[in-house]
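Why do we care about 3D structure at all? Because function follows from shape, and shape follows, mostly, from sequence. That is the central idea of this module. The next example makes it concrete: a single protein chain, its amino acid sequence, and then its structure expressed as tokens.
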Amino acid sequence: MKRVNNNYDTMVEAIEDLKSRGYTHNFNVESNGVLSEGKSSRKYLPSGVELHELHRFEGATNPSDMSILYAVGTDTGEKGTVVDAFGVDGSETVSKFMNHVAQKQFEMGK
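And the structure:
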């Protein structure tokens, strides 16, 4: 079943659903431009990552509190999420990384 981007009301709801679908790793994009997870020594370049979904959220009390949740898969089969601020507060490092990963979020079967 194809998932639609931005189909959750809250980030907590999105993370819980993504976890139930196997997106269990909490990834970070390091300042040197690689994707990593704190408890693993594996590092991923953008060429080893696919973007499956993305979801944007605004803060309930402050619309300027914007965040984005990326659901990604790696070439080793790990799936997880990356969270970043959205808009002017967003990380340039995360944006650059995500601009270079394969964009699979609109394909069927992901």
